[in-house]
Amino acid sequence: MLEVITAFFLLIFNSIVYLFSSGETKQIAKDHIKKIVNSPDGIIILIVAAALLIGGIYLYFYGFGL
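The structure assignment produced for this chain is given below.
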C-alpha cells in the first residue's frame, strides 16, 4: 500500500515538473511518468482513478437518491 501511495505522489510530482519545464528536464520527467504508469503500481493507480471518475459521474447525474 505504501508503494502505491508513493507512486501516486511521484506521478503527481513528475507531472508538475513535466508541465513547467523544458528541454532535457522535460524529457527526464516524461520518462519517469512512463515508468510509473507502466509499473504494476501505476496500473493500480489508473484503475482507482478510473473507478473514482466513473463513480463521480454517476453521483453527479443520479445523486444519492435523497
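Interim note for the steering committee: The mean pLDDT is 88. The radius of gyration is 15 Å.
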